[in-house]
Design brief:
Strand content of chain C: under 5%
Chains: A mainly alpha (276), B alpha/beta (341), C mainly alpha (258)
Number of domains of chain B: 2
Order of helices and strands of chain B: HEHEHEHEHEEHHEHEHEEHHHHH
Helix content of chain C: over 70%
Structural class of chain C: mainly alpha
Oligomer: heterotrimer
Shape of chain B: globular
Radius of gyration of chain C: 22 Å
Number of helices of chain C: 11
Order of helices and strands of chain C: HHHHHHHHHHH
Shape of chain C: globular
Number of strands of chain B: 10
Number of domains of chain C: 2
Largest sheet of chain B: 8 strands, mixed
Radius of gyration of chain B: 21 Å
CATH class of the largest domain in chain B: Alpha Beta
CATH superfamily of the largest domain in chain B: Periplasmic binding protein-like II
Distance between the termini of chain B: 51 Å
Largest sheet of chain C: none
Helix content of chain B: 40-55%
CATH architecture of the largest domain in chain B: 3-Layer(aba) Sandwich
């Protein structure tokens, strides 16, 4: 560690200034727009926003879908991560690579694929019809189900990666030890794996939840105007009605929810730990 | 790779100098449909004629209008083609300037309704269109009335225009007409749509999206403007254009000039080019836009696919631009609170 | 757990995660005119057509430009910042770290909208410049984080030794520090490149006449055309991204740094 403050500042200030001027300042002004009233500060924009039944629907739908994606990602993620960790080192590396692979692919491409798969003449429906399970193809596109599937595929890798990292740091003999002591798999999970991988769950959960909440392409392409989420609503309000106040309100909601998701998950993690 | 390098270097050089002193550039803002045809029939020939560069911005009208408004202080767009209601709205916001029709040599050839559709020569109509229902004739026997859109046979197989699009209010108006309520508040038809919201696959924002939905069999029927008919005709499926007993609605698209763009002469030259008889004929023959120029004559077969002739134009049941504009917020409120819930 | 169950779970998960991508690759090979799976016949025509679409060429160049120069700019700002925070007692270092990493918390669509409204419109800077600045800001947190990670693994006494041996501060940085964090810098570059190239929301509002990033252009194209060319293009881009990351992993052990 070197003591010279001037050099230290000279090195860090440009980056900080850049982020402050081009990022924090414009976003800050945007967020402040919704607090402007006739006589200074006002919360009317928020009251207006939440008094519209449509906005309420969109708000709760966003919460519900993002939450659901996070929960399902966690369930599948634990199973997958556990399997990956139990593989021999070489295949573990490969498997980890395969799970990371989708993250490198453009979300446009990944969402587009679901159009082909979920459409009424798409892959899933033609399989179901061919197998005689149904005569009339299911309507999946432009429903919450389609958006859920798209988001799950988009963000699950983040959960798996976080959980794999957490499990790799687990003491090797923790699970065999618990088994020898007579714990069944459910107990092993709740008493051993879960407490030891909480950090990973918090990181993964935050990433998946906020990612789902702020995704644009998936709800836009797979949901359309009938399944608006906050992000697509924001885009629509600006492009359709030039409504920057609503945009500002939605922006604030998204940022606050991202923060609280992280804080809340951290709280849960630490609260449980003290009890154990 | 070399090309990419050149391109990126060029970008670096031009960045920051938004309005560089490039010789003659005209920036236009147009609807995103049939751009291949427009390029071949309008843009390329015009660039050749004027020796200038044409920059084309596409998108739906609200989006494009929002951008014109955002850049009002230093207009990026020189001329735009939008709906009459949008043109009136832009006029009221002071974003447009009157068009010097004396400089348009084709002006006198236009149908009366296209000459000054919103007053004060703030806009000139270049095409009008009928709006009706297009459907897959292999799936549906036929469509008799606008209310068939909400019939049990079409439940789960129909898309409607979102109320924020240009087609939205006219379609709701015709639905109202079908149930005998033509109040401009559109309360009755919006109520009707909200009761059937679950039967509607999606509320589309761009008509360009519909051809895809028809092919995918997500939908079998949807109301569209005649200008989009071309996309459906050749998609390999049997498609039909309904003539409902309540009649057809529609709209007119107009050219407008942004205020203080400093490029008025070139913009006028381009407008005149687009309105000229040969270009309007070429666009009609390619089934892109129905002509607003009365000197255009096309074969019966072509005319069949267009909104053609003064008689057709006069019989369209249109919502006036000022009603569109003054009721918009009201429609949107009702729509958001009933249909989108 | 037994092997069968392990592979069944992994197989199903991977099918869900990677299957759609394979379907896209195959759908792009269709000989038919509309997007479908299974494809109607096999041909390379859509893969070839992608290269002839003019707007794709322009937007590809734009996205490449943003990804390369945006990441370079972010590294130019991020490396000194990371180094400063790792080696010097900077007053308010935590605050600086918070500011620099803030772009990661705020949704991209808001960044794009804010820059359009408060930078592009009032000052009249070009959309291209705004895009460049926005992408730089978005990549900055990754650059700082990855480079910081490398610096933490580099022992300070190496630099101190260099200084004792008469090296200047600058010289020590160039000769000792930089060669040792080279891998981390490259990893940050690749991560930044891929992030920027695939970025959609920030560019949604930042598009102007003739200025569009490739993902935005693809969305616009597929709204109008339902042919398999977007599938083909998606497949090509995916192969490009995966290829870059794979090469990086092979030659420098990319995942150690990220």
């Amino acid at each position: 560690m070197f003591e010279n403050r001037t050099i230290g500042l000279a090195l860090t200030v440009p980056a900080a200034l850049f982020a402050a001027a081009l990022f924090i300042l414009p976003v800050g002004i945007l967020l402040s727009e919704a607090f402007k009233g006739d006589n200074g500060f006002s919360l009317m924009a928020y009251v207006d926003f939440f008094s519209s039944p449509r906005n309420q629907t969109v708000f709760f739908r966003t919460l519900k879908l993002a939450g659901l994606v996070a929960v399902v990602s966690a369930v599948v993620g634990y199973a997958a991560a556990f399997c990956i960790v139990s593989l021999p080192a070489k295949s573990r590396g490969r498997m980890f690579g395969l799970v990371t692979l989708p993250l490198m692919i453009s979300p446009v491409a990944r969402t587009y694929a679901w159009l082909v798969i979920l459409g009424r003449t798409g892959f899933v429906n033609s399989m179901l019809v061919n197998m005689g399970i149904t005569d009339t193809p299911f309507r999946i596109l432009f429903t919450e189900t389609a958006v859920f599937i798209g988001l799950l595929q988009l963000f699950m890798p983040l959960m798996i990666i976080s959980l794999v990292s957490a499990m790799e740091n687990m003491p090797r003999d923790a699970i065999p030890a618990a088994r020898i002591l007579g714990a069944n798999w459910f107990q092993v999970f709740t008493k051993v794996i879960l407490p030891l991988t909480r950090e990973g769950l918090v990181v993964g959960g935050t990433l998946v939840f906020t990612g789902s909440m702020t995704a644009y392409i998936t709800p836009a392409i797979l949901g359309g105007s009938k399944v608006l989420m906050l992000e697509t609503l924001l885009y629509q309000r600006v492009t359709v009605a030039n409504d920057f106040v609503a945009a500002s309100v939605i922006a604030m909601i998204l940022i606050v929810m991202a923060f609280s998701a992280n804080v809340l998950l951290k709280q849960i993690a630490t609260a449980r730990r003290t009890r154990v | 790779m070399k090309r990419l390098l050149i391109a990126t270097t060029a970008l670096t050089l031009t960045m920051g100098t938004a309005a560089s002193a490039q010789d003659k550039t005209l920036t236009i803002s147009v609807y995103s449909f049939a751009q291949d045809e427009f390029k071949e029939l309008v843009y390329d020939p015009f660039q050749e004629q004027c020796g200038c560069k044409l920059v084309v911005e596409t998108g739906n009208s609200v989006e494009r209008l929002a951008k014109i408004e955002a850049n009002a202080a230093s207009p990026v767009i020189d001329m735009a083609v939008i709906s009459t209601a949008d043109a009136l709205s832009a006029t009221r916001k002071g974003l447009l300037q009157p068009i010097d029709t004396a400089k348009l040599s084709s002006y006198d050839k236009l149908y009366e309704i296209a000459k000054d559709p919103i007053g004060d020569h703030m806009a000139v109509g270049y095409t009008f269109y009928a709006t009706s229902i297009v459907y897959r004739s292999d799936k549906i026997d036929g469509i008799e009335s606008w209310s068939d859109l909400l019939s049990p046979e079409l439940a789960g197989n129909v898309a409607l225009p979102d109320v924020t699009t240009n087609q939205g209010p006219p379609v709701l108006y015709m639905l109202g007409k079908a149930i005998g309520d033509t109040d401009p508040s559109l309360t009755a038809p919006i109520e009707l749509v909200s009761e059937h919201a679950d039967d509607i696959v999606t509320f589309y924002v761009r008509s360009s999206q519909l051809a895809q939905l028809m092919q995918q069999e997500e939908i079998w029927a949807a109301p569209i403007g005649r200008f989009a008919w071309g996309q459906f005709k050749d998609n390999g499926f049997p498609m039909a254009w309904a003539t409902p007993k309540e009649g057809q609605t529609g709209g007119m698209n107009v050219m407008v000039m942004t205020k203080d763009n400093g490029n008025e002469d070139l913009a006028l030259e381009f407008m005149d080019f687009w309105l000229s008889t040969p270009i309007q004929t070429a666009l009609a023959e390619a089934l892109v836009d129905s002509p607003a120029n009365s000197e255009v004559t096309v074969s019966d077969e072509i005319a069949d696919n267009l909104t053609y002739g003064p008689e057709t134009a006069n019989n369209l049941d249109l919502i006036p631009a000022d009603v569109m504009l003054d009721q918009r917020e009201n429609w949107l409120d009702q729509w958001n609170n009933k249909v989108m819930q | 757990m037994n092997r069968v169950a392990t592979w069944a779970i992994l197989g199903l998960t991977l099918t869900f995660l990677i299957g759609p991508f394979l379907i896209i690759v195959i759908a792009g090979l269709s000989a038919g005119d509309s997007l479908a799976f299974p494809p109607q016949g096999i041909s390379l025509k859509w893969y070839i057509k992608v290269f002839t679409v003019e707007s794709f060429q322009a937007s590809f160049a734009m996205s490449m430009f943003l990804a390369i120069f945006g990441t370079l700019a972010a590294l130019l700002l991020g490396i000194p910042a990371a180094y400063g925070m790792a080696r010097y007692r900077v007053p308010g270092a935590e605050f600086v770290r918070l500011i620099v990493s803030s772009p990661i918390i705020v949704p991209g669509i808001i960044v794009g909208l804010a820059l359009l409204r408060y930078l592009v419109i009032p000052t009249g800077v070009s959309i291209a410049l705004a895009l460049f600045l926005a992408h730089t800001a978005l990549i900055l947190p990754y650059a700082v984080r990855v480079v910081s990670g490398s610096l933490d693994n580099l022992r300070v006494d190496m630099e101190e030794a260099a200084l004792l041996l008469g090296c200047s501060r600058m010289g020590a940085f160039w000769r000792v520090v930089l060669p040792n964090i080279r891998g981390g810098v490259l990893a940050a570059f690749i991560l930044g490149f891929v992030t920027s190239f695939n970025q959609v929301p920030v560019s949604l509002f930042l598009s102007g006449p003739g200025v569009r990033t490739l993902p935005i252009d693809m969305i616009a194209y597929m709204e109008i055309n339902y042919d398999p060319s977007v599938a083909a293009l998606s497949a090509l881009l995916a192969v490009m991204s995966v290829g870059i990351v794979f090469a990086a992993e092979k030659f420098l052990g990319f995942s150690r740094y990220v």
